[in-house]
Amino acid sequence: MEYQVGWGKREIHINGCGYAMHGYGQPGHRATGTRNPLYARSLAIADLDSDDAPLLYCCLDLGYVTHAMRQGVVTGLRESLGEAFDEHRLVLTCTHTHSGPGGCAHEGLYNLVTPGFVPAHLEAVVEAALASLRAALVTRKATEIQYRSSQVPDPVPVAWNRSLNAYNRNPDVAPRDATQTHLALDRTMHLISFHRQGRVRALLSLFGVHATCLGNRLAHYDGDNKGYAALHAETQLQADGVSEPVAIFAQGTAGDVSPHYHGPGDRKRRRKLRGEAEYAYARKNGEAQSKHALAMLEAESGQAVSGPLDGVLTYVDMSDQAVSPEFAGGSRDARTSAPCHGVGFFLGTPVDGPGMPAPLGFAARRLARAQRRRSLKPGSPRQAQAQALYASQGPKDILLNAGEKRVLGYALDRIPLPDLADPLVAELKRQARLGALTESPMVPSVLPLQIVRLGNLRLVCAPGEFTTVAGRRLLSAVATALPLEDSEQCLINTYCNDYMGYVTTFEEYQEQAYEGGHTVYGQWTLGAFQTAFTRLAATFNTPPSEREPAEKNAPPPVPYSELALRSDIPVRG
User: Fold this and answer.
1) Is 141 helix (H, G, I), strand (E, B) or coil?
2) What is the SS3 assignment for 310?
3) Fewer CB near the terminus (10 Å): N or C of the chain?
């Protein structure tokens, strides 16, 4: 079967002028230039036998996708395509490079390090995404689509599990020791390739590994390993005579997967990578992904992709979800809560991106536990609320209650830490005193969940960062709910359509490592996603004309008056 497919690629034009990059949360990680251009790469896929809206897919060389980005792209496509656009069929995702611009969210927290919202950054991202999608739309021609999957060989040094103790808590995995972290992950690469006249012209790879080869001491925008993978594959296809190829290297379950060696001596090995050595390492890691993808095309014939196109999208408030007992170990009162960040989040990851010093983390844990005891004490005016919160958040030592906008019980403008002690705390207090965060959410809670159908493939498009086992369990739940025929495949693409943090399994969450500390809606978060995604899967049985508009339950806009107070903040020093 052939589809009408086109592809496009456009540079994201943002100059490094001193704003901090998004990813590591370090105000000193400032961009002063560009090493390798950042791109928006897009696909447009239409059914030859249908007048339905095309399936649109855009991957950005960025650390995150925000609701503001998606809304900007949706608005632009509605203006240009009219009735020929269906928001249910638009996927906006990213590579998760930590060397890209920030300041693109309307919510407060993830802009804090930039500092603040930078309208010019958001406009440049939306412009590049729209330009690449329009290029894809106007270049559509008859194209054959194939699907392949293959394990990246164990000896290929491309990915390691960075949270092994948490991973080993899962009862459905084979426990690994410190010398086997490269096996404690999903090493499968999924590849969708686009062929004309028997030749590959474009491709989409899904493989989960963090884009953190480049550390937080560098000062240039760069696509990191995923960007290098795309550039390498495109160069190879051009050398084979393909004009203007597009190679997309998107993410699978990258939440607990690092591109850096984890095992005995890992921190010492990481410290040896500095400066140019980091860029060389990112290129090597990316080229390993590209070479595997290209080898897959040569080694085996692909499965023909055929069948209809479809997509379903809904918005769900993840801060207040009842979890089906099926996904909560039989519990009938499992619920999520307002977003909270634990001490583990602020401690960071030891190899990829260390955070606050360990002694400060130790003190923060003691203070968080003291605050828990006070709030749960009989007679406390907030005891009932605290009981519900900790029933959801479990063992997390809550440092930031983002829902209530409190740090260790203190209002944001009254955090008892001198401004000189931490520039991020100083900026947080300054914005709170201005009234810039009063009604604005700190992080998103109303999130887009999406499943798209490309013939005999289903793509679960999930926001945020799913760990290896969390993603596996989500896919299993969705595949059961659809259900799938023997010839059909269900894949996962993460970092889609918005960003709110991590999703771990219940068992991993109990470890309260970085990933669990950044699973903001509590220990039942994965169960809530499984519950909501299985509901969404059932809507495939509803004719498109009878489905709810995607924007019906979308988050309300952030107050412009508050956003203006934290926009275009001058870069200091």
Assistant:
1) strand
2) strand
3) C
What is the SS3 assignment for 236-284? Answer: HHHHCCCCCCEEEEECCCCCCEECCCCCCCHHHHHHCCCCHHHHHHHHH
Distance of CA 548 to the CA centre of its chain: 25
Rounded-to-integer distance, Cα 281 and Cα 279, Å: 5
Under DSSP, the state recorded for 184 is S
369: enclosing H helix or E strand: helix 358-376
Burial 536-549 (b: 16+ CB within 10 A, else e): bbebbeeeeeebee
* Nearest-angstrom CA–CA distance, 450 and 310: 11
Token pair of 240 as six digits: 């084979």
Of the candidates 251, 252, 269, the one whose C-alpha atom is nearest the C-alpha of residue 260 is 269
Write phi, then psi, for 148 (nearest 5 degrees).
Answer: -140, 155
- How, if at all, do strands 446-454 and 457-461 pair? antiparallel
- Nearest 5°: CA angle at 147, between 142 and 149? 160
For residues 423-442, average pLDDT: 96
Report the C-alpha gap between 51 and 46 in whole angstroms: 8
Q: Give the 3-state secondary structure of residue 320.
A: coil
**Three-state DSSP state, 407:** strand
* Tens-digit pLDDT profile for residues 485-516: 889 999 999 999 999 999 999 999 999 999 99
List pLDDT tens digits, range 50-70.
889 999 999 999 999 999 999
State whether residue 158 is helix, strand or coil. coil
Q: Using pLDDT thresholds of 50, 70 and 90, give the confidence band for residue 475.
A: very high
Mean pLDDT of the region 149-162: 98
Specify the DSSP class assigned to residue 90: E
Residues 6+ apart with CB under 8 A from 556: none
The mean pLDDT value of the chain amounts to: 96
CA 450, 455, 458, 461 dihedral sign is negative
The b/e string for 243-268 (b: 16+ C-beta within 10 A; e otherwise) is eebbbbbbbbbbbbbbbbbbeeebee
Residue that is written with structure tokens 């749960």 in the block: 376
- For residue range 167-212, list pLDDT tens digits in order: 999 999 999 999 999 999 999 999 999 999 999 999 999 999 999 9
| CA 401 to chain centroid | 21
Residues 392, 403: Cα–Cα separation, whole Å? 13
Q: Strands 199-206 and 246-250, how do they pair?
A: parallel
